Amino acid sequence: MDEKAAPPDDLDYRNTPGNRITYRARQRATDRTTWLRLALLLPPFLLSLALVLVVSLLLEAWLGVPAWLPTGLWTASGGLAFHRPSERFLARHLLRLHHPLAAELSVLAPVWREVTARAGVDGSRYELWIEESDELNALAAAGHIVAVTRRALEQLPTAQLAAVLAHELGHHVGGHAWSGLLGWWYAAPGRLAWRGLVRATPRLIRTARGFSYPVCGILVALAAWLVFTTLTATYGLPLLLLSLPYLTAAVGRRSELRADAHAAHLGFAPVLARTLHDLLAEQSAAPTSADRLGPLSRLLSSHPHHRTRLHHLQPYLTGRDR
Predict the structure, then answer these.
(1) What pTM was computed for the model?
(2) Residue 36 lies in domain
(3) Cα–Cα distance for residue pair 91/43, rounded to 1 Å
(4) Cα separations (Å) of 148 from 85, 107, 126, 235, 295?
(5) How many helices, marked H, and strands, marked E, lie in the chain?
(6) What is the mean pLDDT of residues 174-179?
(7) Which uninterrupted H or E stretch holds 90?
(8) What is the rounded distance in angstroms from the CA atom of residue 66 to the CA atom of residue 1?
């Protein structure tokens, strides 16, 4: 019989009297990493809001559209992170996911049902998706998206697949998935403006070469005055934007460890550790450029190293549960 045709011994639906599942009163929570992520969202949100307001004022001047309308719509648009049709659009067109076929769902659904039953969570609130990728990975996004890669679905034993899904469930019940999406969305205007500035800089430099030295000096002095005035008026807040990628990545790494802890609390610590050991062995056998990150690149990584994750799983493996 195929290894995935039935759950192994450590995935037993008969662990509740009469096969009944008891759901927790609180299906979701907002842990400390989520609050930290939301706090870090404030500076880019304010910057993006200022950019949207400028565009809205221009639209009002040119087309007569009230400035509050596009600004208010953009501010309220974050609620779409919990709107099912918007989530499905995100899954299909931005994350490139698709719904599992009947045969795939027959493998994935029972494992998901067991994981959510252990957690006391209503698994029917979430939607299962597949990512066509040869990476051994899974993801949680928005308010209800749970996806696994093709390779994870086809190659992972059922117990390991359950451990991976328990990790992704931890992102949802801890609030990591929706807060990450809000952070990405509300920082988008500022991110687009920065990319536009980076692309325009070489052209501006080429244009400036045609100016005389006095004109260049005046332009540099004007730019310096504008930067100084902005920093003074905003109490140096833009400087915080330079450190945000590192702080956000650090919070992301912490949320991964919390999702591991969620899976460990459900009893999947040994299986999750086995999966991480397999990934380490695979990386050692065929290292890629992503596996040879420098110190600065590691600080920008949103995922901790597998050895770090294994270190944090040790208390659950030795019986010293946190």
Answers:
(1) 0.83
(2) 28-187+240-317
(3) 27
(4) 20, 12, 13, 44, 29
(5) 13, 4
(6) 93
(7) none
(8) 65
